[in-house]
Amino acid sequence: MQIFTCPFCGPRDETEFHFAAEAGKKRPIPAETVTDDEWAEYLYMNSASRGKAQEVWLHVTCGEFFLMTRDTVTRDVTAVTSLPGRNA
């Protein structure tokens, strides 16, 4: 079991967290011109790169989203920060 740190609640068991998205993905706009293929690409395709990754995670217990920087190979978490506009 791995321990993740919620910036709002502190260290918690990994089972309390849910991966939400890769950080920095740009939502296709304007919505009325986005094709089904573009929308599917945005929703389902991730780069899944090896090494350092910045991701958006949800702490299900408190309902807050936050940024996690981690190594996808070693699983080491190097930073967690609240999203802009949210104070931990």
UniProtKB/TrEMBL annotation:
InterPro entries: SoxD, SoxD_sf. GO terms for biological process: tetrahydrofolate metabolic process. Pfam families: SoxD (PF04267). It comes from the Bacteria. Signal peptide: none annotated. One of its GO terms (molecular function) is sarcosine oxidase activity. Gene3D superfamilies: Folate-binding superfamily. This is Sarcosine oxidase subunit delta. It comes from Paracoccus onubensis.
